[in-house]
Amino acid sequence: AQSVTQPDIHITVSEGASLELRCNYSYGATPYLFWYVQSPGQGLQLLLKYFSGDTLVQGIKGFEAEFKRSQSSFNLRKPSVHWSDAAEYFCAVGAMEYGNKLVFGAGTILRVKS
Amino acid sequence: DTAVSQTPKYLVTQMGNDKSIKCEQNLGHDTMYWYKQDSKKFLKIMFSYNNKELIINETVPNRFSPKSPDKAHLNLHINSLELGDSAVYFCASSLRLATSTDTQYFGPGTRLTVL
To answer: Which regions in chain A score pLDDT beneath 70?
Structure first.
């Protein structure tokens, strides 16, 4: 079965600094990988997804993520964080043979200090 | 226009009661899901339906009964509510079931509190 690990529960960065949120997955075949963001009191919004092709994926709001099969990782990055990026970020893996369900990591809370 | 909507947004009720949460999507999607987010923010799928047919049932107690009157709606009925049912419940939809590359669009969530 798939599993997703987000090692960092909380991360605090200064506004304007770069950001990297870690995500490691466990899955036997080629995974489909997603990053979602959840602002306080809101639903989840898709930032980006990877399913094939170029391993560097561009998303919305200036985010990108890189799929590294050798490290079973799909880390999310942003070169310059804005205060509005403060939210909780969830990595997820999907697989067709599991009925298209998404398995989510536990989330990483991002705090941005000015 | 709201793509995936849920009602109510907040639900506070007593143990033992029966309650329902409604979900509607106006995206024309075939597949809908219910997820539960517990107090530790851990999100886990409960059910998925494809064209009104149950596809995934993730060992959820049978007090939880999803109902899909048509492919645009997936309601969640919970009988005999327990304290442990307190959580945020998210509805989601995706275009198709056949490929898991389709984006799942999430509703705003329903915060259920059982007293």
So the answer is: 28, 95-100
